[in-house]
Protein 1
Amino acid sequence: MASHAQEQILIGLCDGELDSKRYQSSYLTNKVGGQPDWFPVISRQSPRCRRCAALLTHVVQVYCPLDSSPYHRNLHLFACPGTDCSGRSESWTVLRSQGLESEMAAAQPASRDAPPQEAALLTTDWCDTADDWGMEGEDGDDGWGGGLKKESQVQEEVKAENPTGNTTDISSRLQDLSLEESQEEIPVFSPFFISVVEESDLFGEDDLKHAQELLREYEKREGVAVGELQGSGDGGGEEKYEKTRARHGDAIFSRFMKKISLCPQQILRYCHGGKPLFISEPPSNMAQLFSACSSCGGPRTFELQLMPALVSLLQRKDSNVEVEFGTVLVYTCANSCWAAGSHSAVEEFCFVQADPDQQLFK
C-alpha cells in the first residue's frame, strides 16, 4: 500500500437492509450479517468458537483489495452467539481470502440469470484508490459474484482441489458438509449493506457544530473536559484533559468518545497500516499479541475495527441472539501473504475490547 494513503481513514455506515429477494450479494459486497460470500476458489469455511466449540455466526464481510496487489481480497469476521462467550477475543475469528481474477473466472460457473443491478451499484471497495468508490460495481457486474454458494459451486471447488477426479472423495466431502449443517444450525444475523465515506469528508461546518454539541453533552454527563474538535482533523490541535476525571476514570474512553462524536453511527473504521482507536487501555504486550502472521511468520499490521454502533444491528428475527462488544480490532499480515492456488482462507488476529459504557450506543 502506498505510504501517502496509509493514514486515510474510511468510515463504514449501515446503508439499508439487504433484501435477498431484491438484491444478490457477492464477494464484492460489503455487508453486515447474512451468509458469507466466499470466492469461487475458496472452500467454504465454518469456524468454531475456541472457548465453547460452537459454530460461529457471520458478522461482517469486507471487500478490501490492496492497491499494489493483483488479488481480489476479502475479510470475514465471525463471532460466537453464546451469551457466556460475548466480548471475548477467543470467541471471534477473522479469515482473509484472496484470488486472482483469472482464477475467479475459471472457477465460477456461468450464471443463468443476470444479477440484480442494485447490488452492483452498492458495491464498495476499501483499497487505496478511494476515488473509485461506487464505480467498482460496474466492473463487478461481470459474473464474478454468484451470491450464496450452491452445491454445484462446492463441487467445482472440490474438483479444483482434486484434479484426479476421485468422485468418492467429492461425494464424501459433500455428504459431510450436508450432515454437519443438518445437525447444527448456524445463527444468521439480518443482512445490511455497508456504505463508505472518508472521515475527512465528515468535517463539514454543520457536522462539526453538531459534533461540538454532542461533545459538550458528553463532558457534562461524564464530568470530564476534552479539547475542542478541529475542523482540519487530528492536525489542528492536541487533546487536553482537565484534572477532573470521567466517572469511569478512563481518559482513553473519553478520547474514543471524542473521536467518534462526529459520526456516532459509524459501524466500522478502516485504515490499513494505520493506528487503531482503543476504547480502553490495551494490554502492555499488545504488540507481541499480533506481531507474527500465522501463515508466513511475517509482521502484522492494523487494518480495521468494528464499532459499538454495530451491536444494535446484529439481530435475528427468530431469536434473542446478541453479540456485544466495545470494539473489535483486526490485524492482518503486512505482506498479505498468499500461496498460489490456495483454496483455504488464512486466519488473522482479532482483539476484542468490552465497552465500558455500552448503553450510550443503544
Protein 2
Amino acid sequence: MSGRGWLARWPVIRQLRGEDGRSEAARSARTDALRPRTEDATTVARSICPYCAVGCGQLVYVEDGKVTQIEGDPDSPISRGRLCPKGSASKQLVTHPGRRTEVLHRRPYGTGWERLDLDTAMEMIADRVVRTRRETWEQTREGRVVRRTMGIASLGGATLDDEENYLMKKLYTALGAIQVENQARI
C-alpha cells in the first residue's frame, strides 16, 4: 500500500470530505454555527512577533480599532505561518484584562511608591531625556566637531525583536548618543 493510500481511507477523512453516509454524524449544529474569529476584521496588519529575535511574521486582525485575533503570516519566509506558543498567545499583550496600564514611581528621596498613568510616566521620561541632552550636549571637543551627548546611553536586550532594536538605534542616534550597545554583542 502506498504511503498516503491509508490516509484517504481513514474514516474521519472520508466523513469530512462527504464521501460516506456518516458525514453528517461528524457535524453538529454548534460546529456549523462556528465562524472564524477573523471574519469581522476591518483591517489586517502585518507585524513581527515581539517575543524573541527570530522575527516570525504575524497577521494582526483589527475590528473597530481593537485587536481581535493574531495569527501566523503564511507569507513570512521565516515562520511560514507558524507561531510558537508564546507567539500564538501574543494577542493577550494588548487585550488581557490584567495588562498593566500604570507604572510605579518613587520620587527622589521618597520612601514609597506611587502609581502613575502611562501618559504621565512617558511625559516625565521625555522631559528628562530632553533636559539631559540639552545639559550634556557637546558640539565640539578639542577643536573637532563631534555633535554628541555622553549623558545618554543604551544597553539593549536580546529579547527585543529586530523592529525594536532598529527603532531604538535610530532614536539614540538622532539624540546624539554614541554609547549604544546590545547585550548580545557583549
